[in-house]
Amino acid sequence: MSNQSTINKIAVPYAEALLELSKQSNLLKETTKDLSLISTTLSQSKDLQFFLYNPLTQILAKKNVLKKLFENQVNDFVLKFLLVLVDRRRIFLLVTIIDKYLNLAYQLESTLVVEVFTAIAFNETQQNNLIDAIKIITKSKYVKLVMTVDNNLIGGFYIKIGSKVIDSSLSGQLRQMSFYLNTN
């Protein structure tokens, strides 16, 4: 069994339990928003990740940092969950638990998760226009964009919806032209 599948096996029950509790407490949207904030905070700070995931760091120190960071930022319900992960020495699974939780929550809400890779960051208007277009194309009621700036792109963007890819990047268009010219 690979290390990643072991991590997934351990993380899924935590994600499912958190989802169930948030549904019972009518805090599903709040919990989803809070976990997205925590995920963003972790992804932007490698030092915080190292601190939390280091088994040599004292549990009390980890709890204090989490409380200072998130006490007025997230719901008490989510903060208590983080502290339980620290107590059980499972905080190193946090990113995986959040990913699993978000996938389950989006599935529950029938939200289509779309990965967008762009040459430059989209502003809010561009993102909303893209969401509207994707809703029309896929006939989905809710769409969640996961934006990534890809420095390898010259211009444009490409979209991944499940296993489908829509390539509107400049390099993709050049590749199509090259293929067209080589076939004639």
UniProtKB/TrEMBL annotation:
Its main location: membrane. GO terms for cellular component: membrane. Keywords: ATP synthesis, Hydrogen ion transport, Ion transport, Membrane, Plastid, Transport. Transmembrane segments: none annotated. PROSITE patterns: ATPASE_DELTA. InterPro entries: ATP_synth_OSCP/delta_N_sf, ATPase_OSCP/d_CS, ATPase_OSCP/dsu. It is found in: Membrane. It comes from the Eukaryota. One of its GO terms (molecular function) is proton-transporting ATP synthase activity, rotational mechanism. HAMAP family: ATP_synth_delta_bact (MF_01416). NCBIfam families: ATP_synt_delta. Belongs to the ATPase delta chain family. This is ATP synthase CF1 subunit delta.
